[in-house]
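Example pasted here:
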Amino acid sequence: MTTVRVDSARAGFTLIEVIAVLVILAVLAAVAIPRYVSLIDDARTQALEGAIAAGLSHVSMAYGRLALQSGREPTAAEVAAASAAEAPNSADYSFAFAAADNGVNVTVAEIDDATMTDTRLWRMP
């Protein structure tokens, strides 16, 4: 049986090699972390846009439902009231509907962060 001898002087990494690896990891972290934060912000913005689209679609459905039930064109106040009465269910966003001169203002706010809020106008057809 043969035995393998390990030279104890060459068993580990040198200080230069460890420092080089740490410098490479620091450079990678300096590049990757800002990109990751940017991706998170973009995702939150896109999610808010999706919630706004859902709110606008909800108002369109309420308008159609009221028009079919009453047989006439509903007013913006009626559409806003009907939309608010059956607001979309969301664990992440709150919806508010308010009558405007030529439509309904749809306001969507992120529940966890009040800075993520947007308002869009749904125009009467």
In short: The chain has a mean pLDDT of 90. Strands lie at 93-100, 103-110, 117-123. Residues 54 and 88 are 8 Å apart (CA to CA).
